[in-house]
Amino acid sequence: MPVERELKAYGYCRVSTVKKSAHSRPGRVVFEQNLEVQKQAIQERAAASGWKLVEVCSDRESGSKESRPGLDALLDAARRRKFQVLVVSRLDRLARSLRQLVLLLEELRELKISFVSLKENLETETAAGRAMFGMIAVFAEFEREIMRERIILGMAHAAAHGTKSGKPPGRPKRVFDRQQAMDLRETGEGWDKIAAKLGVSVSTLWRHVKQGKLNKIVPDAKEAAQQ
């Protein structure tokens, strides 16, 4: 009879703060949030299931950060096919948004890696686990559609109020009589005097020249060299 292959497992745990406990002392750092409880639960599940627990990666980072050293190491090991099962104590230890969770689980599925979350009693290899994953994907799509709708509405509102993006309007455009500017230029007036008479800056006039809005104003060689 063929010998059943022993599955290799990785664990992942995370706490969201690096705040040190009052019990810390020189040479012995104690954190307020301890990773050991999560690690022990992962170890116990691996032992009960007969999996070889190769490593438990961990982070002391906010879950909203998509790039975390421990998670990056875990995904690198997954892509190199170093294990077949990933175990976490809770879903929110792995990800803090539906979108992030679905992307991670989808990559694990493509790599043919089973996923187990202890608190939710979720296993992607069971019928119930696959159904729950499907529900997570549906809610993630719902979240994306809401965000997309908000962006579209925000852009429409911004456009109606004079901007093309959601950013506040910048410095208001200076309004001046371009025909008067051209007439003054044709009489030989310098840029600085024209700007002073029209109540705008020389750079504003020059910008209109570059944009072709004052194409009859041609600076002489000396003034052009000063721009």
Blueprint of the fold:
Layout: E1 8-15, H1 36-49, E2 52-60, H2 69-79, E3 85-88, H3 91-94, H4 98-110, E4 114-117, E5 122-123, H5 127-160, H6 178-186, H7 191-198, H8 202-210, H9 221-226
Parallel strand pairs: 1-2, 1-3, 3-4
Antiparallel strand pairs: 4-5
In brief:
The protein has 227 residues and is α/β, with parallel strands linked by helices.
Task: State the major sheet.
Answer: 5 strands, mixed
Instruction: Tell me, briefly, the overall form.
Output: elongated
Tell me the CATH architecture of the largest domain: 3-Layer(aba) Sandwich
The CATH superfamily of the largest domain is identified as Resolvase, N-terminal catalytic domain
Q: Could you state the order of secondary-structure elements as H and E?
A: EHEHEHHEEHHHHH
**Total DSSP E strands:** 5
CATH class wording of the largest domain = Alpha Beta
Mean pLDDT: 76
Q: Tell me the CATH topology of the largest domain.
A: Rossmann fold
Beta-strand level of the residues, as a percent range?
A: 5-15%
Tally of domains: 2
What does the radius of gyration come to?
A: 32 Å
Range of helix content? 40-55%
Lateral arrangement of strands in the main beta sheet: 2-1-3-4-5
What class, by secondary structure content?
alpha/beta
Euclidean distance between termini CA atoms: 87 Å
- Our count of helices gives 9
Description:
- The protein is α/β, with parallel strands linked by helices.
- It has 2 domains: 8-17 and 30-141, Rossmann fold (3-Layer(aba) Sandwich); 178-226, no CATH class.
- Helices cover 48% and strands 12% of the residues.
- The protein is built from 9 helices and 5 strands.
- The relative contact order is 0.09.
- The model is unreliable at 21-25, 28-32 and 216-227 (pLDDT under 50).
